[in-house]
Amino acid sequence: MRFARQTISVQEAVDKWLAVLPTLATEQVNIGEAYGRILACDLHATHDLPHFDRSPLDGYAVKAADTVTASVGSPVALRVIETVAAGQVPAREVMAGCATRIMTGAMMPEGADAVIMFEQTQNPGEQSEQVWIKRALQPGDNVSRRGEEMAKGTVIAQAGERINAGTIAILATFGFSRVDVFRRPRVGLLSTGSELLGVDEPLVPGKIRNSNMAMLSALVAEAGGVPVCFSGMKDELAPAKNKISEYMQQVDVLISSGGVSVGDYDVIAHLADDPDVELLFNRVAMRPASPTTSMLVAGKPLLALSGNPGACFLGFELFGRTAIRQLAGEKGVKPPIIQARLAVPYEKPCPYPRYLRGKLMEQDSVLLAVPDFNDKAGNLGTLKDSECFIVIPAGGSGKAVGELVDVLAHAAPAWRKDG
Amino acid sequence: MRFARQTISVQEAVDKWLAVLPTLATEQVNIGEAYGRILACDLHATHDLPHFDRSPLDGYAVKAADTVTASVGSPVALRVIETVAAGQVPAREVMAGCATRIMTGAMMPEGADAVIMFEQTQNPGEQSEQVWIKRALQPGDNVSRRGEEMAKGTVIAQAGERINAGTIAILATFGFSRVDVFRRPRVGLLSTGSELLGVDEPLVPGKIRNSNMAMLSALVAEAGGVPVCFSGMKDELAPAKNKISEYMQQVDVLISSGGVSVGDYDVIAHLADDPDVELLFNRVAMRPASPTTSMLVAGKPLLALSGNPGACFLGFELFGRTAIRQLAGEKGVKPPIIQARLAVPYEKPCPYPRYLRGKLMEQDSVLLAVPDFNDKAGNLGTLKDSECFIVIPAGGSGKAVGELVDVLAHAAPAWRKDG
């Protein structure tokens, strides 16, 4: 199995992988904990919005009919009968010749059908018993009508949507202090490799510190998962198999790094031969990260990423982030591909689609993809500066300046002006 | 002060506001808690990367000179003297006519200067005592040299940078298990308004539920701050002043919503008259959110946003998010403005620059700004779908389809293909 691998396209691999992932159970959380979670049911407006006619500004509620002759040169005098602050219920009906002093957000008094702002009146003092209106109004002017924004029963948010700050605002408005969301995916993380040292261990010849575990842990949390870090695994097959089975019972998906290549001690590659394992793929048509592997181990999904940090990062963005989003209940999950113009030539033929790390810039509304020229799969130094992967298709002789290229944008591109 | 306001531009207001904000103290956190924080000092590579010559693939370490005549038709036989796994230190020097079986990431043995991959050999079995090389190599082929990626002492990350998953990877590699970051800003949140009900309170006539507090709390956390929610404040000036002073001592910045307009009970507007207060601005040339106000109260920064949810949201994106980023130590903070083509006409003259909520799409590499036509300042229903604010400049008669417009992108635009 290690050598005789069947190569499939990135698209096929993503589809195959997402198809085996379940959607997790739901739970109820407080609105204060709902940010970033995925809604588990449709929600409807529990009342009209606004739920009473109200004034959108500070001024006087009047009968428009009283103002038909009003102008700056010939203002109309009205008697002020009441002041209504936001939150109060008006006590008096506005009759002909009268006005109610009204604050932003306050309830319209009976009888009034328009509001004039302070700035268009004369003598708008707080204690004034009379006010002069300097403009003619139409019925409805400056009144926010009950239900104007939304009628009771309107769908305000749908199952499968990610809850953002705007969603929180609408949930609060309609009194949803608790909300049904999908459970957060528990994502097991495992590094394989006898060469790996802990971050706080001193360096020794031949060994390196484990950077993938810390990186994946950050990426999993960023994507909305709960990282569960398991202790590292030496390159020994039998104990590794047992550990993996044990770990998988504790999580919704296990993501490993390392051990996917054709080396003698590549435990993940060997694992695929196990009768309990259904291999989904173990070679993807892309560079780097082509040995990215996925399988079901006793029915549970395992994503095995390359040990190489850059390849591990790419594999996570394509398969890990999408998996977490899908497990968490998000609808229509796929890698976020957009198009941009290549800012500099890339003139190498590629046997496989090449995913170059780079930056995404905007110039006069056009997106420019700027590859990182230090892009070796393992180059750790520029990983933090990467905003996207630029896809150079297989075959041909690369891409010229200005050609359209597909770009896999990371979760949060840092927008920057050129220069 | 309530009526006689001086209008300043958004740019001036942002500059004035950011200029009064301090940078917070630093603290040390574990690498596992460092994601999203801002680095407080430059960090340097603690060793060469890689710190030993290593093989980037699975194969045989050889002397290139031994392979000069090798070809598929006439492979060269070498004697296998050792197997080196990743993490091991080779025990034997590779002499002429010999090869060491070597795994990805393993240390190069003395004497070898090139690596040939398994796939270019014959008889590469694990127990083979002899292997046939089918390709001629140059010295250095398939060897990752010590220091090739980075020399010891190289700056790996700089003060003022936000730590992302890539930064975490490089920190782990160089053994930074703890890292100096700026303290997270404590952001006090306060809603003013006698009309406000809690999210779990039943609706009564004239009152509405407080949606800004929950929304701002989510936005503050998203921006990297620690939201500190204070209990709501009635529209009464004397107690409000005392409360605000008390609250401000507990936080790095206080953000309020409501009470900034010209109404009789607008406590924030009245507060600006206090002798202890240095007003920075109380009218910004934009719609909505023009009454957005900022001041120093006993030297501490207060940002007063409109009570209107849409205006509150815009005010936060311009002044609140930038403030949190700056307090948290980020360098060169400014609102993230990019340019896009207007996707539909907006043919109204604007006395002030108009910030329309909308979506940012990409079509053949060009960014399209699609305004939300339900965009009333207070429209809560579409707040969650907003990806950006589209800026229609003041004067003129709006903008035609295809014209360039400035766009204030939110923190994380959701990229979507058109159609």
UniProtKB/TrEMBL annotation, chains A, B:
Pathway assigned to this chain's UniProt record: Cofactor biosynthesis; molybdopterin biosynthesis
Record's catalysed reaction(s): adenylyl-molybdopterin + molybdate = Mo-molybdopterin + AMP + H(+)
UniProt function note: Catalyzes the insertion of molybdate into adenylated molybdopterin with the concomitant release of AMP.
Family stated for the protein in its record: Belongs to the MoeA family.
Necessary cofactors: Mg(2+)
Listed SMART domains: MoCF_biosynth
SUPFAM superfamilies: MoeA C-terminal domain-like, MoeA N-terminal region -like, Molybdenum cofactor biosynthesis proteins
The entry's keywords: Magnesium, Metal-binding, Molybdenum, Molybdenum cofactor biosynthesis, Transferase
Protein name: Molybdopterin molybdenumtransferase
GO molecular function (one): molybdopterin molybdotransferase activity
Gene name of this polypeptide: moeA_1
Pfam families: MoCF_biosynth, MoeA_C, MoeA_N
Annotated InterPro entries: MoaB/Mog-like_dom_sf, MoaB/Mog_dom, MoeA-like, MoeA_C_domain_IV, MoeA_C_domain_IV_sf, MoeA_linker/N, MoeA_linker/N_sf
Annotated organism of origin: Brevibacillus parabrevis
